[in-house]
User: Which sequence fits this backbone?
């Protein structure tokens, strides 16, 4: 049994999350663990409390979606579909397109995947579990357009002026902002007992906001760690006792080439990865880019070679200027929470 603390981010304003293309007209709908970690470390830096190794003292997952009708309702927490989840035997091949759209699985069903079972039998009635990109037994409400997606994307037109005199022609551009229906939002899982640094950093981040375009009011949120009765939010997942594989819930950077070879030593390994880096956001280095590293995405499945709940490493992405490092270290968190999974 895996047990995690839940931190919910209830957004008070729209949110824009940049992608690798840095195209403002497209926003991601979730935030990766290394991005959240970097924002938290930046907040600790403002309080003069940056840990030497960049470690918060606990492991965090990516930010995943949750749906909640109102403050007194129970939230539905979603986790990423593993890349090697067992697919159903479909009697109608045309249903495959609907199945492939599933990105998120209700946490209450997730143990079924971890134990090597199909997420539904393949009966046409079971296809009703698929609601938009979500797999859940709980009916999700429809909006006015009939969609059950509770994360709304809206493209807004903005205008930029190059100089303060107004003599340069204004140039329009577009920003994709996302918002959440009802009391929905994003949440992340925490593994570890020492959350003091995390809690302090989140108090600052609530006022700073997360994502881009914070200067126009985007990305502000409140952190929720207790339910309406005052009980701490906890997620328990029934995990298999013995499993040959594991699925990542965070961005993951292997500790060494040797570890990577062991993790890849399976014909059932399935993964995706992306380049991580970006611009430095602290003065006087805001015109500099960080060094880059490639990280595996949540949902990636590897061979389970060691009985650890968290694997990976912190990566130093500090750039140099004329051969000299800048005066503070820039960490990228590649430590990932892993869950055991049986593949059949």
Assistant:
């Amino acid at each position: 049994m895996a047990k995690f603390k839940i931190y919910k981010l209830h957004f008070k304003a729209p949110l824009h999350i940049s992608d690798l293309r840095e195209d403002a007209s497209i926003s991601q709908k979730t935030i990766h663990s290394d991005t959240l970690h970097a924002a938290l470390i930046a907040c600790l830096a403002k309080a003069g409390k940056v840990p030497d190794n960049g470690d918060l003292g606990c492991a965090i997952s990516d930010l995943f979606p949750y749906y909640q009708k109102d403050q007194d309702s129970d939230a539905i927490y979603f986790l990423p579909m593993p890349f090697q989840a067992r697919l159903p035997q479909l009697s109608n091949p045309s249903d495959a397109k609907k199945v492939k759209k599933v990105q998120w699985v209700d946490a209450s069903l997730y143990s079924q995947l971890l134990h090597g079972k199909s997420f539904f039998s393949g009966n046409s009635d079971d296809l009703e579990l698929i609601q938009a990109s979500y797999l859940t037994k709980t009916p999700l409400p429809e909006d006015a357009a009939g969609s059950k997606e509770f994360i709304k994307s809206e493209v807004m037109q903005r205008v930029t002026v190059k100089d303060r005199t107004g003599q340069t022609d204004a140039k329009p551009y577009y920003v994709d902002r996302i918002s959440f229906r009802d009391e929905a939002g994003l949440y992340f899982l925490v593994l570890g007992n020492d959350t003091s640094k995390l809690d302090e950093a989140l108090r600052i981040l609530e006022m700073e906001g997360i994502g881009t375009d914070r200067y126009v009011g985007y990305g502000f949120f409140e952190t929720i760690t207790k339910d309406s009765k005052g009980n701490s939010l906890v997620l328990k997942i029934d995990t298999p006792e013995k499993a040959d594989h594991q699925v990542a819930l965070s961005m993951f950077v292997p500790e060494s080439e040797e570890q990577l070879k062991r993790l890849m030593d399976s014909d059932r390994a399935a993964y995706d990865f992306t380049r991580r880096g970006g611009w430095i956001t602290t003065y006087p280095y805001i015109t500099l880019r960080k060094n880059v590293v490639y990280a595996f995405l949540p949902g990636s499945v590897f061979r389970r070679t060691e009985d650890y709940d968290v694997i990976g490493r912190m990566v130093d992405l500090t750039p140099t200027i004329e051969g000299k490092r800048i005066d503070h270290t820039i960490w990228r968190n590649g430590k990932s929470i892993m869950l055991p999974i049986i593949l059949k």
Q: What stands out?
A: Confidence is low (pLDDT under 50) at residues 23-27. The chain has two domains: 2-75+142-181+183-237, 245-341. The helical segments are 33-46, 96-100, 107-114, 196-208, 257-263. The longest strand covers residues 2-11.
